[in-house]
Amino acid sequence: MAAVVIVGAQWGDEGKGKIVDIFTERADMVVRFGGGPNAGHTLVVGDQKVIVRLVPSGVLRPEVKCVLAQGMVIDPKSLIGELDELTARGLLGEGRLVISDRAHAILPYHLLVDGLREQGKGAIGTTKRGVGPCYEDKVARRGVQLGALRDGARLRELVEAALAHWEAHIRALGGTAPTVASVLDELERVRERIVPLLAETQSMVERAVRSKERVLFEGAQGTLLDIDHGTYPFVTSSNPTAGGACIGAGVGPTRIDEVIGLVKAYCTRVGGGPFPTELDDASGEHLRRVGAEFGSVTGRPRRAGWLDLPALRYAVRVNGLDALALTKLDVLTGLDHIDVCVAYRTPDGETPELPLEGIEKAEPVYKRFEGWKEELGAARSLDALPAAARKYLDFVEAEAECPLALVSVGSRRDETIVLRHPFEAS
Q1: Cβ atoms of residues 56 and 92 within 8 Å
Q2: CB under 8 Å to 44, separation ≥6 — which residues?
Q3: DSSP β-bridge partners for residue 424
Q4: How many CB atoms lie within 10 A of CB 300?
Q5: How much is the pLDDT for 91?
Q6: In whole angstroms, what is the distance from residue 26 CA to residue 101 CA?
Q7: Could you give the CA distance from residue 22 to residue 327 in angstroms, rounded to a whole number?
Q8: What is the pLDDT of residues 257-306, one digit of tens each?
Q9: Which residues partner with 404 through β-bridges?
Q10: Which helix (H) or strand (E) holds 339?
Q11: For residue 422, is the peptide bond before it cis, meaning its omega torsion is within 30 degrees of 0?
């Protein structure tokens, strides 16, 4: 395979950082194609733990080119902080990172608007990182692309136009808009660091794919947060599904060789919105505590619940998944039983499909599995797993109608059962 897309198959937080890090062992380039600093991908190698929000998770592999593509929205101040941390750790060598000059900048007024909105009754549980308002500007054609940092006069013109729109909105929300001068001053402090990293990345990525370099497209968030295909309006402002890789990076769908979906052995969700299999009991607390289910961006505790197979089958179809990477199987260790949602009861009867419309009235139908007590971290093959864990995996794989490519049994890089590497034939 030359071009592989990795996407979240749930509500995000499926463990994309670890899996992307593992798969980029044999990659030449890794491309973030959407979202912004609302992502938080955690990498654990040895005693070192790294959380990246904007830079691709392939940064731990020194030979891999890292690209931030035009589908992203990027907070310049946050980016510089991340680059400083990675450089201080010796993880970001010269020339390894390229940023699209067509990616849009998250500016102080975006952060302000996002925070003010989340204080009101219409809050949906965003990360308050300014992502949604920035995408609003992009779609409304008043956004500021990073390439504008090269031209001071053009930059001022764009910021003035955007602030002219947002000022009244900020006042109505009870805030005070920043001045044009203050926004430009903040950008001036980072401009010299960012401009040398800017490039036209679409042709770079497309050439790499066309010449059969091994390119991994790294998604953020998850399928059920997709603006078109998720649990609207409790969604993100971009397309984290597989099709978003083509749009956000600028490659045609015929160039993609494989799509792998990441799925936790259970489900979590951050913020508001429907979550039919959510648990408010000892099992839910077990998942949260053992799985360290606290947002890597916000620190908020994640809502936790049983695996939702109708939702997973939906993700398989929407993304055209070729394989699944199942993470955090080890978190289920110690539970007496494990339930899995296999269908829904709705006012129109029972259905194996995810009832996106009217989901608040749907009741999960569960199948119960025996739990296990054995620790899984040392397992490097499916045969090394307890019989109950193997039975659980076999059922998920069969019901999702999508083969497993990987099973994660711990947070560390080596605590992984790799069944098939997407670049093994390259």
Answers
A1: no
A2: 18, 50, 411, 412, 413
A3: none
A4: 13
A5: 81
A6: 27
A7: 13
A8: 999 999 999 999 988 899 999 999 999 999 999 999 986 666 778 999 99
A9: 324
A10: strand 337-346
A11: no
Amino acid residing at 158: L
Phi-psi region of 183 (alpha: psi -120 to 50; beta: other; left: phi over 0): alpha
Owner of token pair 């010299």:
192
Residue 281: how many CB atoms within 10 A of its CB?
Answer: 7
Q: Are 133 and 301 contacting, i.e. CB atoms less than 8 angstroms apart?
A: no
DSSP state of 62: T
What is the distance of C-alpha 244 from the center of its chain? 12
For residue 243, give both structure tokens: 């099709």
* CA angle (146 as vertex; 130, 151 as ends), nearest 5: 130
User: Whole-angstrom Cα distance, residue 187 to residue 60?
Assistant: 28
Phi, psi dihedral angles at 73 (to 5 degrees): -120, 130
Portion of the chain with pLDDT greater than 90, in percent? 80
Long-range contacts of 117-126, Cβ-Cβ distance < 8 Å, separation of 24 or more? 117/173, 120/173, 123/272, 124/233, 124/234, 124/271, 124/272, 124/273, 125/234, 125/270, 125/271, 125/272, 125/273, 126/38, 126/271
CB count within 10 Å of CB 299 equals 8
Residue 341, strand partner residues: 308, 366
Q: What is the pTM of this model?
A: 0.93
Q: Distances in Å between the alpha carbon of 44 and those of 131, 244, 245, 420?
A: 26, 27, 25, 21
Instruction: Tell me the one-letter amino acid at 107.
Output: L
Say which residue the tokens 């402002």 belong to: 237
Q: How far apart are CA 170 and CA 116, in angstroms?
A: 8
The residues annotated with a catalytic role in the active site are 13, 41
Q: In angstroms, rounded to a whole number, what is the distance separating the alpha carbons of residues 106 and 133?
A: 8
d(CA 19, CA 4): 12
Token couple for 73: 């929205």
- Position 89 scores a pLDDT of 82
Tens of pLDDT, residue by residue over 312-328, are 999 999 999 999 999 99
Beta strand ranges found along 84-213 (DSSP E): 97-100, 104-105, 198-199
